[in-house]
Amino acid sequence: MSDSDHNMTLTLRVWRQDNSEARGKFVDYKVNRISPHMSFLEMLDVLNEQLIAQGEEPVAFDHDCREGICGACGVMINGQAHGPDKETTTCQLHMRRFQDGQKVVVEPWRANAFPVVKDLVVDRTSFDRIMGAGGYVSVNTGQAQDGNCLPVARQDQESSLDAAVCIGCGACVASCKNASAMLFTSAKVSHLAQLPQGDPERPQRVLDMVAQMDAEGFGGCSNTYECEAACPAGVSVEHIARLNREYVKASFCSSAQPTIQASAD
């Protein structure tokens, strides 16, 4: 057995909170028999098995595909969204990135628009409401046209796909000092703005999605680029610049008006 195969023991400092109204606190747990080949979520599974065996409440955390695709998982690990590896989700982070005996602090995303539901689980339905405000293409009847009927320049195809890789995990919000959702919203606006299918609703889309983003209580963007650094999908801040251009163009060069009130429910 090589040194890299030896199991580790970690001290986890985990945020525990019963519900959105309760006062939370950090609780320390020592976790044994952690394989360096485990993912971070598998390590949390080991912690929960240990807690259940001791008759304690397991730690609640979000997860689904565990393949870095769905965007369900996401925690702050030692102050970094999704942990120390670039363009890596929490479920794809392996425990060999940590040292035996290390203390690891695990927190939920922190943002007013992402209230804590329980422990490490936060309510990210504000993202769903931003998408519902315009992050789609309306198709009233019939089927989608064949892709070859709508030629798209290669540069636009690639830039649109670069925006479409956003998995909506919320790391951009959690890592931003203003808790801004500009990177998420800009990715969704930029994705459709560069395709002919998204062109007819282009002005209304950007006005409504920005209005909904503001109504949800996200902060403003101050161009620190921390969102880009934390994004596990590698979404570029260039899409924020495109969103700003789309917003100015829709505000001054079209008759569209936002249909959403800029105030939280």
From TrEMBL:
List the GO biological process terms.
aerobic respiration; respiratory electron transport chain
Q: Which Pfam families match?
A: Fer2_3, Fer4_8
Record-linked InterPro entries: 2Fe-2S_ferredoxin-like_sf, 2Fe-2S_ferredoxin-type, 2Fe2S_fd_BS, 4Fe4S_Fe-S-bd, Beta-grasp_dom_sf, Helical_ferredxn, SDH/FRD_Iron-Sulfur, Succ_DH/fum_Rdtase_N
> So which cofactors does this thing need?
[3Fe-4S] cluster; [2Fe-2S] cluster
Q: Which GO terms describe its molecular function?
A: 2 iron, 2 sulfur cluster binding; electron transfer activity
Residue ranges of domain 4Fe-4S ferredoxin-type in the record: 157-187
**PROSITE patterns from the xrefs?**
2FE2S_FER_1, 2FE2S_FER_2, 4FE4S_FER_2
Cite the 2Fe-2S ferredoxin-type domain residue spans from the record.
Answer: 10-110
| Database matches in NCBIfam families | PRK07570.1
The family classification in the record reads: Belongs to the succinate dehydrogenase/fumarate reductase iron-sulfur protein family.
Q: What is this protein called?
A: Fumarate reductase iron-sulfur subunit
Q: What organism is this sequence from?
A: Thalassoglobus polymorphus
